Amino acid sequence: MPLVDVDAAVGTLRAGGLVGLPTETVYGLAADGLDAAAVRGIFAAKGRPADHPLILHVFEDPDAHGVADQRARTLASAFWPGPLTLVLPRRAHVPLEVTGGQETVAVRAPAHPRAREVLRALGRPLAAPSANRFGRTSPTTAAHVLTEFPDLPVLDGGACDVGVESTIVDLTGPDVHVLRPGGVSSDAIADALRVTLSHAPRTTRAPGTLAAHYAPTTRVVVTDDLTRACAEAEALGLRVGRLPAGNPSDHARRLYAALRALDGRCDLIVAELASPGGLGDAVNDRLRRAAAAFEPR
């Protein structure tokens, strides 16, 4: 302990405990998603508000825990297992603790082989938000998890391939609405469904969609001109940590590790925005939410 194998992870989950679980997006703080007491343990460990819903991770079936329609089945067939979360009407057996008290549930099938081994062996869904203190930078390695929760059993699956959280799509109304960009692009979703996505305001609460989120303790600012922004900050006598952009998939994969590496080692983190589209949209979403954590409210 705290690094464990699949059998030990499953045993801990069956006993109502929490486990650090690798996925292709970020590491999750996992509990049996149908055990209300275990799910409450996630909220207590993270310091997460009880009305902020969790994602329910399943092996493959979009109908098992949410009421799926043809749109959901189409997206699951196209993108599962993978970094896509579907918001569906909740089935009665799903605890309200998972959904933040809502009658909707966020469901996805992760692609990471270790996560799938655990789900297959357990035979039950897992509630698994990112394995970090609420609002802070998500973990993409087992070592990151252990800096947050030193005594937590963690299944080490290596560094996460995608590096940012899943795309969240709301399918609870007549329109299809992307609530959070992630590893599956909006264009790919629209193409799979042959629809135009809605941009109308939604009241559905979903994981990871607060205005301020994903933030290190060091202040973050975002810019499309890294050289200028760093020069201005350094002229004020600030120690600056630079986070340049690059290929969007590489940027996404290293984003949280880079934020963690810079955190506390400088006065200001200056992050360059990624090229828009696909994973670039997800990176920019996370950077803007990290920066918003330091804005006056």
How is this structure best summarized?
With 297 residues, the chain is α/β, with parallel strands linked by helices. The protein has 10 helices and 13 strands.
Description:
The protein is an alpha/beta fold. The protein has 2 domains: 3-193, DHBP synthase (Alpha-Beta Complex); 220-292, Rossmann fold (3-Layer(aba) Sandwich). It is built from 10 helices and 13 strands. The chain has helices at residues 6-14, 36-46, 70-79, 96-99, 113-122, 142-148, 186-193, 226-235, 248-262, 279-292, and strands spanning 3-4, 19-21, 28-32, 55-57, 84-89, 104-108, 126-127, 154-155, 167-170, 177-180, 220-223, 240-243, 268-272. The strands form 3 sheets. The chain has an 8-stranded mixed sheet with strand order 2-3-7-4-6-5-9-10, sandwiched between helices. Strands 11-13-12 form a 3-stranded parallel sheet, sandwiched between helices. Helix 1 (6-14) packs across helix 5 (113-122) and helix 9 (248-262) runs parallel beside helix 10 (279-292). The longest helix has 15 residues, at 248-262. It is globular. It starts with a strand and ends in a 5-residue tail after the last helix.
